[in-house]
Structure of Amidohydrolase:
Amino acid sequence: MPISSKVKTLASEMRAWRHTIHSKPEVAFQEHGTAGFVAELLHGFGVEVHTGIGQTGVVGIINGRLGDGPSIALRADMDALPMVEQGHPVYRSVHEGVFHGCGHDGHVCILLGAASYLAANPMFRGKVVLIFQPAEEIVCGSQAMLDDGLLERFPFDELYSLHNDPMLAPQKIGVRAGAQQASSDFFTIRIDGVGTHAGMPHLGVDPIAIGALLVGALQTIVSRSVNPLDSVVISVACFHAGEAPNVIPHQAVLEGTIRALSSASQALAIQRMREICKGFEQANGTQITLELTHGVPPIMNSDQPVQCVVSAAREVVGKENVIEGITPLMACDDVANFLKVRPGCHFLLGQGGRMCHHPEYDFNDDVAPVGVAMFLEIVRSRLDATFEDKDISLATTAAARCQPC
């Protein structure tokens, strides 16, 4: 089926919106400009708009004209990363040290495109709840919206969302029932030693030596405590200690993440980390403090919504471009908090190009219409939509247009 004239028009508009958002990125809970931009466009589409949900979140409501029915939510994340953009597009970030390096600018514009279409063609039963979420990069935004009464104020029965995936080629859609992406918890380990002269280490307690051994010991959790058929990753990403080459410092600090594809493995890894830190503390006669910041559970996609996404993807990009049962990712996404309280499905939109969080990453604008078509096909399926502009499939014409950035 050829791409519809409406989606072609949206492609041009979404590109312009995305470049505007990309040039003015904002980090978690500071998305005031982005939220204002979203709210203004939604108002222009004729959508009922609510702002300030979970601090900077935006919710839009579109009621169908075909009577009562289910309520489904479509979600996009809005925040950028605190990193320097090293690419040089004409719409490069004007905020030094802040950069849309994960494609949330593209996600926002896909949902705006879907909102524009649905507002103009509300021929469906029930209701669509549009969720523009803050603070995904620090995995706090979804919970902030839930804590602010999202479900009570704007109830929905199911939730659908997407994330671009540079590891998949454009036109590919990946999805998996059950655990698709990992949980994520953050840890800080403080080792309090006794500082001394580097030439007389026996007079102190060296926190660097203890920390170095501890890093290795933490890896035995994955290799010796977790079932080899389960997936857990423990990464020490920061090791801070010392200020001078001839001084053994009094403290070392390790920071990192724990990721798992099941809640049981997540709990086991945390328990073993506590036990290992306590053992090292006793063995070295020092104090070791483990601080844990719980992030998000694994993304658990529900069976029926997954089948809805698979069916939609076959319509939009063709059966040959649908990867059902895609290999799980150990990256997290805080959409998991929404999927913990309501059934739904988070799927992956192929885009090629640089990996997310690379300093030269840029969202591939050519795949945005695929995302819009996916959301519209989901609405068609779940809410019995009878859109006047029925031809929203990109299966036969977009392949030549969608190239890696």
Notes: The chain has two domains: 5-181+299-382, 184-296. The CA atoms of residues 214 and 280 lie 7 Å apart. The first strand starts at residue 48 and ends at 53.
